[in-house]
Amino acid sequence: MHRHGLRDLRFLHAVFRQRQLWYWGAWALLALTWVAGIVLLALSGWFITATALAGAGLLATLDIYVPSGGIRTAAIARTLARYSERLVSHEAVLRSLADLRGRTFRGLAARPARWIRAYRSGDLQTRLTGDIDTLDAMPLRVVGPIVAAALSLLVTLVLASWLAPWPATALLLAAGILTLLVSLLLAWIGQRDSRQLVRARARERIALADYIGGLAELIAFHRAHDTEQTLARQNRDHARQLTRQESVGTLTEPVVQAVVAASSLLMLLLALHWYAHGQISAPVAVLLPLMTLGLGEVLGSLPGAWWRAGESLAAARRVRHVIAQGSTRTDHPEQPDPAAPPQLSTQALVTGFESRRPLSGPLDLAPAPGTPLIVTAPSGRGKSTLLDTLAGEQAPLGGSVRLGSTPLDALPVDARYARISYLPQTLHLPDTRIREILAPGAHDDHPDAALWDALHQVDLADRVGADADGLDARIGEGGQHLSGGQRQRLALAALILQDRPIVLLDEPFSGLDSATIQRILQRLQPWLDRRQCVLVTHAPDALPPHWERLELSRPVPASSTDSQALAARG
Amino acid sequence: MNATPRQWLRQRARPHRHWLWLSAAGSLVAAGATIGVSAIIALAVHRALFTPEHLEVAVVLGGGLALIVLRYLAQGLRDLAGQRLAHEVKGALRSELLRRAREAGPARLATAATTGEWIERFQARGEDLTGYYVRYLPALQAVILIPVAILITVFWLDWLAGLLLLFAAPLIPAFMAIVGMGAEQIHRQQQAEQDRLAGHFLDRIRALDWLRRARAIEATQSEVVERSHHQRRLTMRTLRVAFLSSAVMEFFSAVAIGMVAIYIGFALFGALDYGPALELTLFTGLFILLLAPEYFLPLRQFAQSYHDRAGALAAAEALVPLTAPAEPLAAGADPAAAAPPAPAPAPAPVVDQATNDPAARSGPLLELEAVSLRYPGQDAPALPRTTLTIQPGESIAITGPSGAGKSTLLALCAGFLQPDTGRVQRHGDAQSFVWIGQQAHLFHGTLRENLQLARRETIPDAEMASALAQAGLPLQAAELPDGLETAISEQRRGLSGGQAQRVAIARGLLSGYRLWLLDEPTSALDAETEQALLDTLFDLAREHALTLVVATHHTAVQARCRRTLDLGGPPDA
C-alpha cells in the first residue's frame, strides 16, 4: 500500500512538475497573503497600544505615520497577493490537467482493445473527467497550503524570537505542531474513507448507466421500480459515508481554530507577565498575542489539506492505471516500402477464443493483390473472428499471421494499421463531422474533392450532399443520424482514403440491393486492384465470380490428425 | 410552469428547515462568545498597563478558555447543521431524479439528455448544490446576525468607529453585485461545456477501436487537449469573476480594519479632539480592534459562498427540467389524452381493462385510436394521426422512412409515451411486454444475472440453458466460456451484435410475456445474421403464440410479418 502511495505521489509530481515555477510563485504569494494578514493585525495592536501610552504621556516620542503607513501597505499587499495567487495557481493547474487529459487518452488508446473492453466506458470516462479534476486539489489545497503555512510560521517564529524571550517562540512552534498532528490524524481517517468514496462513485456510475441505458428493458420486466429503490439505497449509503467523512473535516477546522485562540490567550498572559517584569514593552506585549491569533488563518488550512490528499492520491491511482508504462511510445520501426509492400499471409492459422473450442483453421492464406478473397461460413463460425485475427486484434490460437516475414503481433499497433485497413462488422464511429470521419486530423492531405470522390464511390455522395451542412454535418452519437448500412459505407469511404495496401472488409454491402452493389463494386475496382483484400460476406453471389472464395467450416478437434480441406475455388 | 432555479433551490431546503434554525442559533452563540473573549482580552491588556493590581490572571485564563471553547463548539454545530441540510436535500433530490427518470420512461428521457449527460447531472450537478446549503445559506444567516451583534457592541463603545464599520459594510455587497452580475451567465456556460466535454470523452472512448484503426489517435488526442484547454479558458473566466469579487471584499475589509486601527490610534494619541474620540480608552480601542476582523469575517465567507451560489444556480437550471413532473409533451393537447401519470411499476396504460372473461381474450390486445404526438419545439409531428389494432398472436411490421414515427409508435404501445390526441387501450396480456431495441441493453454482470432479470423468482439453470438454446445461443457456444457465469459488460465482451440480441430473446422467453415490442432489432446486424435471428424469432413466435410488433426499415422483417403498417412519408434514400 505504501509503495503504491509513493508511486501515486511520483505520478502527481510528474504531472505538475512541468509548471513548477508557476506553483512556487503561487505558493510564495499565498505565504505573502498570510504574512500580510498577520502583520496587519499585529501592527494594529502594537500601534493602538503605543498611541494609548503616548496619549497618556507614558511614551516620550511616537512616529504615528510610519506604522499607519505599514498598516495600509499590509492591507493592500494582502489583497493583491491573494488575487494574483489564485489566478496563477488555477491557471497552472488547469493547464497541467488539460495536458494530462490528452496524455491519459493516449495512454488509454495504447491499451489493447481487450483490456479496454473489460471496463465500462462510463468508468473510463470518469477517469478522464472526474478523477483528473480531483487531482487539482494536490497543488491547490494540499501542497500549496502546507508550503505556505510553513513559510508563514517561519516568519512569525523569527519575529517572535527577535521580539520576546524564547517561550514565545516555543509556544508558536507548539501551536504549529499540535495543529499538524490534529491534521495528520484526520488525514489518516480521511485517506481511509476517500479511497472507498472514489470507488463507490465509479460503481455508482456503472449502475446509473445500466439504469438509464437499460430503462426500457427494466420497465418492460417490471424491474425499474426495484432498481430505482436499490440505486436510491446505495446512494443513501454512499452519501452517509461521505457525510461522515465530511463531518470529521468540518469539525477539525473549529478544533484547530480553538487551539490557535487558546494559544493567543496564553501568549497574552505570558506577554503581560514579561511586560510586568520589564522584559518587553507594552506595544510588543499586545503585538505577540495578536500575531498568534493571525496564525489562525494559516494553520486552519492544514486539516483540509491533509484531508484532500487522500482523495487526490486515490484518483491519481485510477488515472495512472489507465496510462500504462511504456504506453506513450510512438516509434515506428520502419516505414513500409510503398513500392513493394509486405504481403499478408497466414501459416496454419487457427482462430478462436479458447483452445478447447477453435473456430476455424488451420488456414494457409495469401490473398493475391487485386483478387479479393471472399470468406463465407454459416453464422457463428468465426468469420469476424478470422478478420479480427488477420488485423492482429485477436491473438491466433495456433499458427501465425505474418506481414512479409514479420509476425503481426511483433508490430506496434500504429505500424500495423499503417498497412492494414479494417472495416469490422460492429462499428462505433465517433460523433463528429463527416469530414473528420473520412480524413481524421489531416485536412491538407485530402481536398474536399477527394472526400466527395470517396463518398461517390460508396454511393453516399447524394445522401451527404442532400444535407445542408454537407461534409460538415455531424453523424450523431453512435452515428445515429445514419442508418446501419450508411454507417458501414461511410466507413468504407474512409478506408478508401486511408490508402493502405491490405484491406479487411466485414459485410461492407449489408442492406444494399444488388444493383447498388454492382455499381459500387465497379467504382471500387481500381482501388481494389492494387490491394490485398479479404472480404467476409454471407452473400457471395453478388460479387465478381473471378474473386477467390473460401468456405469456413468448423475445425476438427485438435487431437485429430486429420487436416481439413481449407479453401475451394469458387 | 417550472420554478426558477432560485425558487427551486429554496423549495428543496424547505422540508429540512430545522437545520437552518440550528445553524442560525450556532451563529448567534458564536458571535456572543467572540464578543466576550474580545472584551476579556482588551480588559486584561488595559488593566495590565494602567491598573496592574486589578489584573486577575485566573479569571482571564478561565473565562477566556471557556468562551473560546463555547465559540468553536457553536461554530462546529453550525457547520454540521449546514452539512446535514445539504445531505438531506441531495438525498431527496437523487431519489427524486431516479423516480422521475423511471416515470418519464426511456423515450422521453432520450429527448432530454443522453445517458452520459444524465449521469453527469445526477452525480456532478447534484454535488454542485452542496456549497449552496453547506456554505451559502448558513453564511447568509451569519452575514446578517453576526455583524449586527458586533455593530451594536461597537456603537455602544464608540459610535464613530461603529459608523466607520457600518459604512464599509454595504460597499461590499454593492461591489459584489456589480462584479457578480456576469458570474451566473459564465457559470452556466462553463457547466454546459463541462457536460459536453464529458459526453465527448465518452463518445471517443466508445469509438476507440475505430480511431485506432483509422490511426486517428493522435488527432483525437489533440482534440481532447484542445477541448480541455477550451474548458480551462471558460473555467478561468468564471474563476476570475469569483476571485475578483472576493478580492474586492478582502480589500474593503482590510482597508476598513486598517482605518479603524488608525482612527483608534490617532484618537488615543490625542490627535483627534472631537466626538467620541476623546472618551476612547485602550480597553475600548483594543476591544473594537479585535472585533473589526470578526465583523468582516462573515462578509468574507458570504462572498466566498456567493461563488457556491452561482454554481448551484447553474446546476439547478440543469436539474429543474429533470425534476419537473412529467407533463404532456405538447401544449393544447386533447384533454382526453391528459391521462393521470403512470402508476408504478406498470408503465402507464391509458385505459386498463382486466380481462378474465374469455370473450375479451379473443378480442384485440392493444388498440391505438387516432393517436398522434408532437415533441415540444418541433413543427412536424413525431407521429401523425395513426390508428392500429393489434390482435393476439399476429405479427406487425411498422415501416416508414426515418423520422416517420416508427419508434414513437412503438413507445406508445409500450406506454413509454402518452399520445397528445387519441387513446391507447390496453387489454389483459398487454400490461407486460418484452422490449428489444436496436442494441439490446446487457447489464453489467454475468449472463445469469442478465437472464434472471426476466423473472422475480430464481430461474433454474436448466430453464436458462433451454431458453438460450431456443434463442440460438447454446451454452456450449465458444463465446460463453464460463457458461452462465460468463461476465458480460456494456461492450458485450466476446458477444457479437447478433448474439447480444439472442441473449435478449432468451431473456424475453424466460419472462413468459406474449407481447413483444421490437425497435429496429436487426438494424445493427449484417443481413446474414439478420436472417438467422429472424428465423429464430419468428419460429419462437409461432411456437409460443407471441405477438410481435416490429419497427423496422428492413424488407427482410417486413416480408415475414403477417401485416405491415406503413407510416408513409417520402421514400428513404
Structure, described:
The complex is a heterodimer of chains A (570) and B (573). By secondary structure, chain A is an alpha/beta fold. Chain A folds into 2 domains: 2-322, ABC transporter type 1, transmembrane domain (ABC transporter transmembrane region fold, Up-down Bundle); 344-551, Rossmann fold, CATH 3.40.50.300. Helix content of chain A is 63%, strand content 8%. Chain A contains 18 helices and 9 strands. Chain A has helices at residues 2-17, 20-55, 65-110, 113-117, 121-134, 137-163, 166-213, 215-220, 224-276, 282-299, 302-322, 383-390, 413-419, 434-438, 448-457, 461-466, 484-498, 514-529, and strands spanning 344-354, 357-363, 373-376, 398-403, 406-407, 420-423, 502-506, 532-536, 548-551. In chain A, helix 6 runs antiparallel to helix 7, helix 7 crosses helix 11 (302-322) and helix 15 (448-457) packs across helix 17 (484-498). Chain A is elongated, with a radius of gyration of 35 Å. Chain A starts with a helix and ends in a 19-residue tail after the last strand. In chain A, 52% of the residues are buried. Chain B has 573 residues and is of the alpha/beta class. Chain B has 2 domains: 5-319, ABC transporter type 1, transmembrane domain (ABC transporter transmembrane region fold), CATH 1.20.1560; 344-566, Rossmann fold (3-Layer(aba) Sandwich). Chain B is built from 17 helices and 11 strands. In chain B, strands 6-9-10-4-11 form a 5-stranded parallel sheet, with helices on both faces. In chain B, strands 1-5-2-3 form a 4-stranded mixed sheet. A two-stranded antiparallel sheet of chain B has the order 7-8. In chain B, helix 16 links the parallel strand 9 and strand 10 (547-551). In chain B, helix 5 (130-157) packs antiparallel against helix 10 and helix 9 packs antiparallel against helix 10. Mean pLDDT of chain B is 82; it is low at 328-360. The chains are: A alpha/beta (570), B alpha/beta (573). At the A-B interface, helix 2, helix 3, helix 4, helix 5 and helix 7 of A face helix 2, helix 3, helix 4, helix 7 and helix 8 of B.
